[in-house]
Design a protein that fits this description.
Length: about 800
């Protein structure tokens, strides 16, 4: 047997194994552990062990495997390798031990070799820092081979179940064996060695530990979190300044420069999970810190593992909170880190399979955009919309631009140049871009098109003084965008209708019916769907063209009205003209609005009276999610729709009620029926009351209430034309609102207490009515005032007096 060995000259030479090594090897093969142990304990063999450590290590390590575990031979070899570590030529033994670790394919052998490695590294002179780096790097190389736990998309406390995953348990076992080894080097007082130790401690926080959950749930910590905290504490024993590690990352050699992923997880633990946060200096500028850390978030977001992505989103949220009250300068965008971060973040938003993660990333996206001042925001929007190939995200970005623009209108005198004139038109050219003109795929581009049209319509209605200069560009948009869009809608609708007809007429049986069709998102093929599913998709696509046509028609009407109003400079004329569209088009859009509002109500118990509910409702009936832009008042439109339709349902109930019922009984049953309509939404009803209490919504709220009580009184047989007419209606309105408030707090079964409360209040109202009738409170002024209230209520709602 021959071995390669490194001589003092630095050259590799070939030499034969000594007789001592051969005897040890033969005895181990025979299982003669007593002889081997005796030979190693004999002090006369110390020189043989020292001179032959290079040869002995592979001989002994051959038996440190799981196959020999729990045997005397395994225990013997554990003792032998420790003796070699104590008595060998340290540098020579280190090289052989590194080779054994790097080529190792069993955790059992790896864990046994850690203690000898620690001893050998401790014996090497402090100035030989390269030896320490080589030894710890071998450990890191072995760890990098570990498979991460499976992406199970666990949520909340479910993540604690990761500790039961086989791969996670293996990682935890290896790290538990590693921590004592690194602790031995933390207390070294030689700066060069400490820098090496710090590097590899931080590296340990990277792959594979980064794939384990490190959150705390109700005070419960995962095993991965406990180990990560221990490692973080060890790093802080060496340095208490995280920024110093960033500077090392940027300037130092490979020997002291830690891996980016490890640094990213370390910063996540400190700034998101608050581990050792009290030890961190608070003197650094938040902007400098944000800029310096951005590449760390990118590193986490680029890892194809859900846990790492969640760490990245948590870290960026923590950094954004640091600069929440600071408008970041556009000059920061000169760094390439921002471009890489945006690319990584948008990929998470578009492609991540977990909906909660996509929403969290989208929230980060919005906060990131809003953290910059106007110039930086403009540059981000322009470059993102120029480079993105996902219409949904472009549409979302356009909407964020519209929101910022709305804030700029609060003071038109100081409006930023990035929201008007050439800058605005430059952005509009990006927003209103049809890559293939009328031949563009409008279904794929629908979110972007609808968002762009909503922005333009908002400008046409809001900017009556042409503060943004938008009226100077509408004619250019007509030629370069609207004309192609109209033709594109017509062509697309005809194409889809023809495609539907062809598929419907195709044979229902046979191989053709089993044909699959791919679905592509932003150029990436995601899945395949069956023919029947594609038919449903094609039919729902037709509604997209309806929405685009509707918004475009309204936009053009507003533009035409605005140009017509230029001669009179009458803003009122512009508003009235824009609202007076043709009866057919208005009815068509009202139908779409009503359809979306009705579909949104089932989502209210979960999402509240909000744009989110409107978005979910639009999506459920085949309209683009961005269709919520059709409802300028958001949740208020949804509440009013519910109130109005509920009043209409009540009228139908009243029409079927027995006419023989006494008026008080009928009124009680009517109020009870109307209140029961609130039950599915009762948890969210305080929100509805708050929304309708806002000044712009009060007239409609009052109108729906007064219309309801008027209907109740009418069908209760009240045909009076004197002052009693008004007293009864005002009384019932007061009883209804009082009972509504009581109902929201009622926990009784079937709301029994509420109905008792209603009965008592009605009795009191009757008594009050009798008192007023017997008094002289019948002045013409009061009568005219009450009459005006009810007439106004019906006019607000567009109702007439015909029953």
């Amino acid at each position: 047997m021959s071995f390669v060995v490194l001589c003092s000259s630095g050259r590799f030479t070939l030499r034969r194994a000594s007789d001592f090594t051969k005897r040890i090897e033969a005895s181990l093969k025979q299982g003669n552990v007593e002889y081997v142990l005796q030979a190693f304990r004999d002090s006369t063999n110390s020189l043989n062990i020292r001179n032959n450590s290079w040869d002995l290590i592979p001989v002994v390590c051959a038996y440190l495997t799981s196959e020999h575990e729990q045997t005397k031979l395994f225990e013997c070899c554990e003792q032998l390798i420790d003796v070699i570590a104590d008595q060998s030529n340290a540098e020579e033994a280190l090289l052989q031990l590194i080779e054994e670790i790097e080529e190792c394919n069993q955790d059992t052998k790896f864990c046994v070799l850690l203690k000898p490695l620690q001893k050998i590294l401790s014996r090497i002179p402090n100035k030989r820092v390269n030896s320490l780096a080589w030894g710890l790097n071998a450990v890191q190389t072995y760890l990098s081979k570990c498979e991460p736990p499976e992406d199970a998309n666990l949520v909340g406390k479910e993540k604690l179940l990761l500790d039961t995953d086989g791969n996670a348990q293996r990682i935890l076992k290896l790290y538990s064996a590693l921590v004592p080894v690194y602790e031995a080097f933390v207390n070294r007082d030689v700066e060069e060695r400490l820098e090496i130790t710090r590097k590899f401690l931080i590296q340990l926080l990277g792959k594979p530990l980064a794939f384990l959950d490190m959150e705390v749930f109700n005070g419960i910590k995962s095993k991965g979190r406990i180990i990560a905290e221990h490692l973080t504490g060890m790093v802080f024993q060496i340095t208490k300044n995280p920024v110093a590690v960033l500077e090392v990352d940027a300037k130092s050699s490979e020997f002291t420069k830690p891996g980016t992923l490890g640094v990213a997880v370390w910063f996540y633990l400190i700034y998101s999970e608050q581990v050792c946060i009290d030890l961190v200096p608070k003197v650094y500028c938040p902007v400098y810190f944000f800029q310096s850390c951005l590449h760390l978030i990118t590193a986490l977001l680029e890892v194809n593992h859900q846990i790492c992505i969640e760490k990245g989103l948590a870290l960026i949220n923590s950094l954004l909170r640091l600069v929440k009250f600071i408008n970041l300068s556009y000059l920061l965008l000169d760094s390439g880190h921002h471009s890489k971060f945006c690319t990584a973040l948008t990929k998470v938003i578009i492609y991540n399979q977990d909906e909660a993660t996509r929403k969290a990333a989208l929230c980060v996206y919005e906060n990131y955009l809003n953290s910059f001042e106007a110039h930086g925001f403009y540059l981000l929007v322009y470059n993102l919309c120029s480079s993105l190939n996902h219409a949904g995200l472009i549409g979302y970005t356009i909407t964020r631009y519209k929101d910022w623009l709305a804030r700029e209108f609060d003071n038109e005198q100081t409006m930023s140049v990035y929201f008007k004139g050439p800058k605005l038109f430059r952005l509009l050219q990006i927003f209103c871009r049809l890559h293939k003109n009328e031949e563009s795929d409008l279904v794929e581009l629908s979110d972007q098109v609808v968002a762009a049209l909503n922005l333009l319509r908002y400008l046409a209605l809001r900017d009556r003084n042409n503060a943004t200069g938008i009226w100077d560009y509408f004619r250019l948009l007509e030629e370069g965008y609207f004309k192609h869009l109209r033709k594109g809608v017509d062509l697309s609708r005809a194409h889809y209708e023809l495609k539907i007809k062809e598929m419907e007429e195709a044979p229902a049986a046979g191989d053709r019916n089993k044909a699959t069709h791919s679905v592509t998102v932003a150029g990436q093929r995601l899945l395949e769907v069956q023919k029947d599913e594609q038919l449903n998709v094609l039919r729902s696509s037709l509604t997209v063209f309806d929405v685009i046509s509707s918004i475009l028609s309204r936009l053009v009407e507003c533009i035409e009205a605005g140009f017509a109003a230029e001669t009179t400079q009458s803003a009122c004329c512009l508003w009235v003209t824009c609202r007076s569209s043709s009866a057919q088009q208005s009815s068509y859009e009202d139908d779409i609005r009503a359809k979306i509002l009705a579909a949104s109500l089932p989502f209210v118990p979960k999402l509240g009276w909000s744009k989110d509910a409107l978005t979910a409702g639009a999506k459920s009936v085949g309209y683009p999610e961005i269709s919520h832009g059709m409802f300028a008042r958001g949740g208020a439109d949804l509440v009013q729709f519910f109130q109005t339709t509920s009043n209409l349902k009540l009228v139908e109930i009243l029409k079927q009620t027995e006419e023989s019922l006494p008026p008080p009984v009928l009124a009680e049953k009517a109020i009870q029926a109307r209140l029961k309509m609130l039950i599915p939404y009762l948890d969210k009803w305080p929100q509805a009351i708050a929304i309708m209490s806002l000044p712009p919504n009060v007239p409609n709220a009052l109108a729906t209430l007064l219309t309801m009580v008027d209907d109740i009184c009418y069908y209760a047989g009240d045909r009076s034309i004197d002052f009693n007419w008004y007293i009864r209606r005002i009384g019932i309105a007061a009883v209804y609102k009082a009972t509504e408030l009581y109902m929201m707090q009622d926990k009784s079964e079937e709301f029994e207490e509420t109905w008792k409360f209603l009965s008592k209040r009605l009795e009191e109202a009757v008594q009050l009515h009798d008192i007023l009738i017997k008094s002289n409170v019948k002045s013409n002024t009061a009568k005219e005032t009450a009459q005006a209230v009810f007439v106004t209520a019906r006019n607000i709602l567009g109702l007439n007096w015909n029953r």
